[in-house]
Amino acid sequence: MTAFARAWGGPGGQGDLRTEAADFRVEEVLGFEPGGGGEHAWLWLRKRGVNTEDVAHALARFAGVRRGAVGFSGMKDRHADTAQWFSVHLPGREDPEWSDLDPATGVVESAIRHNRKLRIGSHRANRFALRLRAVEGDRAAIDERLAAVRDGGFPNYFGPQRFGYGGENLRRARRLLAPDAVKRARGIHLSAARSWLFNTVLDARVRDGSWIRPAPGDALMLAGTNSVFEYRGDEDDIESRHDRFDLDVTGPLWGTGRQPVGAAVAERERAWLADEHELRAGLERIDMQARRRALRATAPDLVWDWHGTDLELCFTLGRGIFATSLLDEAVTAVDVSRGDADRRRTEGENA
Predict the structure, then answer these.
(1) Are residues 304 and 244 in the same domain?
(2) Based on the domain organization, do 245 and 160 belong to the same domain?
(3) Catalytic: 77?
(4) Which entry of 77, 203, 218, 248 is annotated as an active-site residue?
(5) Would the CA dihedral through 160, 165, 167, 173 be positive or negative?
(6) Are residues 80 and 90 in the same domain?
(7) How far apart are CA 254 and CA 198, in angstroms?
(8) Cβ-contact 326, 154 below 8 angstroms
(9) Are 82 and 27 in contact (CB under 8 A)?
(10) Is 334 within the bounds of a domain?
């Protein structure tokens, strides 16, 4: 896969990640409290060595319900120590004894009732605690890069796992979105295609510095929302609001429908994506609706500490932001759990 431009000088070293599961800890931040009554049992479950979809199937079998009765908000990695919410629809039924769940599936640490199913994308953020071992390189440069990330944010690239191992999801997207394709592209391939186009635009804007410089014609997003408006140049306080992480410049999630950008910005985005005509046309042909995504991600609570040659980092990222992209600004994380002989970057999705 292409190495995209980095904002703050690129990694100052490299280290081993996930030597053990506890080196990669993620906890979901729901952002609201379940109501305490209703037909759905909401479970706070901690797991290791199993992915989210496998847990959902196991919970359905344990509770004697169909898989569709189980909900979750985000996918969490198998090779990590993760905690997240699940819901199980149990109309007219008492909760089973969750403590009897096979510990290989996970441990239910708390359960509460709520009046609706947990849906994908319901949570607000994820908290990460990562430990990189045997870090080699320039420690001062790593510290400098991390401080820049904390104070100025980092490019909001989709991580490499979005494109599949070795980019396979993207290759299949290209085949399935070609004009003569027989089969329809599935969600995972459509996502890979749109993510690639977004990353390509973001890469160009990191290179020219415009990813954190609002200019007339840009589509700006209110932080923490999907509310987007075209910046026409006569609004007050735009730059200072951007510097306060109140607003962000956005890039395209390609599809049909008018993008809220000026003509010059629209022309630049098409020029940056001129070599990706088939992907763009394929997404438009199936009527995928255009959206925008912030070019900048932030982690203002980022803290880190050195323990000999080990580096420990703690931070919170909003939903849909990749820990990979934060790490890549400062240090290359070599994923030991995946037999990472080719030194590929770690999967660190914040889903």
Answers:
(1) no
(2) yes
(3) yes
(4) 77
(5) negative
(6) yes
(7) 8
(8) yes
(9) yes
(10) yes
In sequence order, the 6+-apart residues with CB closer than 8 A to the CB of 225 are none
One pLDDT digit (tens) per residue for the chain, 351 residues: 568 999 999 999 999 999 998 999 999 999 898 987 899 999 999 999 999 999 999 999 999 999 999 999 998 888 899 999 999 999 999 999 999 999 999 999 999 999 999 999 999 999 999 999 999 999 999 999 999 999 999 999 999 888 988 889 999 999 999 988 878 878 889 999 999 999 999 999 999 999 999 999 999 999 988 899 999 988 889 999 999 999 999 999 999 998 899 999 999 999 999 999 999 999 999 999 999 999 999 999 999 999 999 999 999 999 999 998 999 999 999 988 766 433 343 334 445
List, in order, residues 6 or more apart from 315 with CB less than 8 Å away.
Answer: 127, 128, 299, 301, 302, 303, 323, 326
pLDDT digits (tens, 9 = 90+) for 283-321: 999 999 999 999 999 999 999 999 999 999 999 999 999
Number of domains in the chain: 3
| Residue 239, domain member (yes or no) | yes
- Tell me the whole-structure pTM to 2 decimals: 0.90
* 161 in the same domain as 87: no
Beta bridge mates, 311: 132, 306
Domain span including residue 317? 13-22+130-152+299-338
Residues 162, 261 within the same domain: yes
Q: Are residues 161 and 230 in the same domain?
A: yes
As a 3-state breakdown, the chain gives helix, strand, coil percent values, each rounded to 5, of 30, 30, 40
Domain boundary among 114, 140, 174: 114
CATH assignment of the domain containing 239: 3.30.2340.10
The first and second tokens of residue 61, run together, are 């079998």
